[in-house]
Design goal:
The complex is a heterodimer of chains A (363) and B (325). Chain A is built from 16 helices and 7 strands. Chain A has 363 residues and is an alpha/beta fold. The longest helix of chain A has 31 residues. The relative contact order of chain A is 0.10. In chain B, 33% of the residues lie in helices and 29% in strands. The chains are: A alpha/beta (363), B alpha+beta (325).
């Protein structure tokens, strides 16, 4: 079972009607690892032959649907609690990623599993927002002084805040990339262009920014466990926004230029086309390619890395080259995140702590 | 060990019991990751090379059906030693499902128990076709009793005693209730016993069969009891829940069976189900139907013989109502 077969299964669920039990076994395992089993289940359900599948397969797909349905409800419920926490705050609060897709009712939310709620506020409002969350029961876990400094001084978010009753987690951001990153954009522009969510106190990024954020996030990540899932998100966002607005592609390219994020957007489009067959107009791709400033050699290197690293990291679908590609993504992600000297110090410390701390965590 | 071609042919052609395999054959199959165990309707494919894990499976699952190289398994798990730097100064065991590690490693000698806990987790985390409740369940005369209880209440001890004396074991840790017919489904997996309970049940049933004992776990001394053959043979049969009994062991206590409020029982189920919340409305309705169709009791006891008498009386149609009090 290759990652390719998982992609085909999600894009063309009709092909699964005759799939043997043995192949279902592999497909479900790889899909679960890639966090795409919900999307797979949704596709099969829509294709209309769910009840004809082997009972074991139905059981696993059904369980996946139970989880995605629950998480969808849970994330909307959680944003209601957040809205309550922010009642006395007049700062704009922007929902990002999964929470935004769910609350805005976008196609990208269908069959998706959600993690933490990510929100973006103006940096000047960070302290007041954090205080408002703390008053309603959210608190950062015990971080040591180094972790605190890592987040507060260098990152684009504060340490994750967990609700003491529900155990849910909020990631409070003031930008979409670390302050130390080479291409950290002006968060004020993102906030200024954000749009109100009807019937809610929250805002979401404008369509172009939503795509650019998702792309930027994916191509600055140092770990890609959800890489393919995120690429499917992008595919859904691009499909939905371009169908709704005729000028979407031009707007998207112009916006990436303004924010200085043409490179990640180009990579997102390049690999969405290559891996998922996403329909993107040729002129858009060409303009982005030029603007990305990538030479032929860089493109070859990035292809070698990302075409492998975006595949599900499951023993059935993975090989040595993919492991190497993941290491390259890890290093690239960190390189983009911080200047070299800072990075070396940070990674050395991580390694040291991992080896010599927590040796008796098990008991 | 290699398995020769004739034997290979014989092995791969039918469903068989684990006990029909020699220890060496089981070892070879587990080492190659070709062995799969059937518990209830679930199939778990297992890769393991550690000798104590192999022995534990051979003993505890002797009556269970197994499959060699099945086309499909619900879970693909591994128990082994992590390959990291730490192995040079602290030996550990890890549990992997599909190559992922849901828990931190445990000390090496807990590997056999780790497999049991890992399989419990796998079911609770991904089988949402049932409401999965942290409770034991057993069947007698077609009716099932569910024994929910906080740790330390003697739930597993009582479950073991009942299973060894004519009640059919459905499950020790996870009761599986299907939302459609509200029936209890069986896994017939080994019963987890701790500390003094181990000696108590050993004395109670001297010919019972046990897995390896692990010392110094988070729960103290633990081991597993092999489920009776009849419970395993009938593990595909579900049963209609008729009683919910909260056991409580109290030293020196006379047996006391007291009716228990349904509302409180419902709340307990809601809080002690692993997937009550993901199931949403289905979870609420299933727990509701389950509690309303069962007689609910609190049961205090100190002697297993007393408990057996009371449970057999229940199975024969005995009831205590509030008016009796």
């Amino acid at each position: 079972m290759s990652g390719r077969q998982l992609i085909d299964a999600i894009r063309h669920p009709q092909s699964l009607r005759e799939l043997s039990l043995k192949r279902w076994d592999s497909l479900l395992r790889v899909a679960r690892r890639a966090n795409l089993i919900g999307r797979l289940a949704g596709g099969v359900r829509q294709a209309g032959f769910f009840d004809e599948l082997p009972v074991q397969v139905q059981m696993h797909l059904n369980s996946a649907e139970v989880l995605t349905t629950h998480q969808r409800v849970a994330i909307e419920w959680e944003t209601r609690h957040l809205a309550k926490a922010f009642e006395s705050l007049d700062a704009p609060v922007v929902l990002l990623k999964g929470a935004a897709y769910a609350c805005a009712g976008l196609v990208a939310a269908n069959g998706r599993l959600f993690g933490d709620v990510d929100i973006l506020v103006p940096r000047a409002e960070l302290t007041r927002t954090e205080a408002a969350l703390m008053l309603q029961g959210w608190a950062s876990g015990h971080n040591d002084a180094y972790d605190e400094r890592y987040y507060r001084q260098w990152m684009h978010e504060i340490p994750p805040m967990t609700h003491r009753g529900r155990g849910t987690v909020v990631d409070l951001h003031h930008n979409i990339l670390p302050l130390t990153a080479r291409s950290s954009p002006d968060a004020g522009r993102l906030l200024a262009a954000s749009q109100p969510l009807p019937g809610s106190r929250f805002r979401v990024l404008c369509p172009a920014d939503m795509v650019i954020h998702s792309a930027t996030h994916l191509f600055h990540e140092s770990e890609l466990q959800n890489g393919l899932r995120d690429l499917f998100d992008l595919d859904a966002l691009l499909g939905e926004f371009s169908a709704k607005s005729a000028g979407f592609w031009e707007e998207l390219v112009a916006r990436a230029r303004t924010l200085g994020l043409e490179l990640p957007l180009y990579l997102a489009c390049r690999y969405a086309v290559a891996l998922l067959g996403t329909e993107i107009p040729r002129p858009t791709l060409e303009t982005l390619e030029k603007a990305s400033g990538l030479g032929a050699l860089s493109v070859r290197w990035l292809d070698a890395v990302y075409l492998r690293a975006l595949m599900p990291d499951h023993p059935l679908s993975s090989d040595g080259a993919m492991a190497l590609a993941r290491l390259a993504v890890y290093l690239r992600g960190h390189y983009l995140r911080m200047p070299f000297a800072l990075l070396t110090a940070h990674l050395s410390r991580k390694l040291f702590m991992r080896l010599f701390r927590n040796t008796s965590r098990a008991t | 060990m290699r398995i020769d071609a004739d034997r290979e042919d014989e092995l791969s052609n039918r469903l068989r019991q684990v006990g029909e395999l020699s220890l060496a054959e089981l070892d070879a199959l587990l080492d190659d990751g070709r062995f799969a165990l059937q518990t209830g309707s679930l199939v778990s494919r297992i890769q393991a090379s550690l000798p104590d894990v192999v022995r534990s499976i051979h003993v505890l699952y002797a009556h269970h059906p197994c499959l060699i190289d099945p086309d499909f398994a619900d879970f693909h798990v591994q128990v082994g030693q992590p390959r990291n730097l730490r192995r040079w100064f602290r030996r550990q065991a890890e549990f992997l499902i599909d190559g992922e590690r849901p828990f931190e490693p445990l000390p090496r000698d807990q590997a056999p128990a780790f497999l049991e806990w890992g399989l419990n987790w796998s079911i609770a985390a991904s089988c949402h076709q049932w409401l999965t409740v942290h409770a034991a369940s057993l069947e007698r005369n077609g009716g099932a009793v569910i024994l929910p209880a906080p740790p330390g209440s003697g739930k597993s001890t009582l479950c073991a005693a009942l299973a060894l004396r004519g009640w059919r074991l459905l499950s020790d840790e996870l009761s599986l209730i299907d939302p459609g017919a509200t029936r209890a489904h069986a896994l017939a997996r080994p019963i987890n016993l701790k500390n003094a309970s181990i000696d108590l049940i050993r004395d109670f049933a001297p010919d019972s069969v046990w897995g390896p004992v692990t010392y110094d776990t988070a729960k103290g001394r633990v081991t597993h009891l092999r489920p009776p053959a009849d419970s395993v043979d009938r593990m595909q049969e579900s049963a209609q829940p008729r009683w919910i009994v909260f056991p409580r062991y109290a030293a020196g206590a006379e047996p006391l069976l007291v009716p228990r409020g349904k509302a409180g029982t419902f709340i307990h189920f809601a809080q002690n189900s692993f997937n009550y919340s993901p199931l949403g409305r289905t979870g609420f309705e299933t727990a509701g139907r389950l509690v309303s169709q069962c007689d609910c009791y609190d049961f205090t006891y100190s002697r297993l013989e007393d408990a057996l008498e009371v449970f057999d009386w229940l199975a024969d149609g005995g009831r205590v109502t509030d008016d009796d009090a």
